[in-house]
């Protein structure tokens, strides 16, 4: 019963109507996170960003920033791919506004 209540709260918070959407949205978050993490190393390698070149702190700071940016684009892309573009575009706009970057979305 407690889990049903949590799903109901998610549906209300996200403004969605059915449990299938909750499942798809959670899958999109998982796929996006895994994919962004997976492609992070090749991107860093392409730009020759290594611990040797940037030090441990610099490497991880760049990697986290890069993954954050890649994640944002991929979230909308995978949301579109899974038929939840509207939800993820609205989610992205809300995130950008919270970061003070709302002027970039119009």
Radius of gyration: 17 Å
Largest sheet: none
Please report the distance between the alpha carbons of the first and last residues: 42 Å
Helix count? 4
- Strand fraction equals under 5%
Q: Any idea how many domains?
A: 1
Low-confidence residue ranges: none
Backbone shape: elongated
Report helical residue fraction: over 70%
Q: Structural class, from helix and strand content?
A: mainly alpha
- SS elements, strand count: 0
Q: Spell the H/E element sequence.
A: HHHH
On the 0-100 scale, what is the average pLDDT?
Answer: 90
Summarize the structure.
81% of the residues lie in helices and 0% in strands.
Name a few traits of the molecule.
mainly alpha, elongated, 4 helices
